[in-house]
């Protein structure tokens, strides 16, 4: 079953290739959705996929790419939007 989650990632997550790295990880896991920077310095992600790959993405988001310093990840489930790919939104 496909699930949809919204994540908000806080910490040093902008200017460290977080969006591009998230996109690469999601594509590797077969997850669709998008990632974007938010004005408050956080990163917002909407992701859809099977439960196990989503859990792997969540665990990855708690660490992020090499230079990121993640302080908090908020997660909520919501209704599916049937994304076709995983994109970086601007």
Task: Summarize the topology.
Layout: E1 3-12, H1 18-29, E2 32-37, E3 43-49, H2 51-61, E4 69-77, E5 86-88
Parallel strand pairs: 2-5
Antiparallel strand pairs: 1-3, 1-4, 2-3
Helix pairs in contact: 1-2
Tell how many strands the DSSP assignment holds: 5
Main β-sheet, spatial strand arrangement: 4-1-3-2-5
**Total domain count:** 1
CATH architecture assignment? 2-Layer Sandwich
How would you characterize the largest beta sheet?
A: 5 strands, mixed
- N-to-C order of helices and strands: EHEEHEE
CATH topology: Alpha-Beta Plaits
Structural class: alpha+beta
Figure out the total of helices. 2
Strand content: 35-45%
**Mean pLDDT across every amino acid position:** 97
Rg calc: 12 Å
Write down the CATH class.
Alpha Beta
Helix content: 25-40%
Quaternary organisation = single chain
Which ranges are low-confidence, i.e. pLDDT below 50, for 5 or more consecutive residues? none
Overall body shape: globular
Terminal CA distance = 29 Å
List keywords for this structure.
alpha+beta; 26% helix; globular; 90 residues; Alpha-Beta Plaits; 5 strands
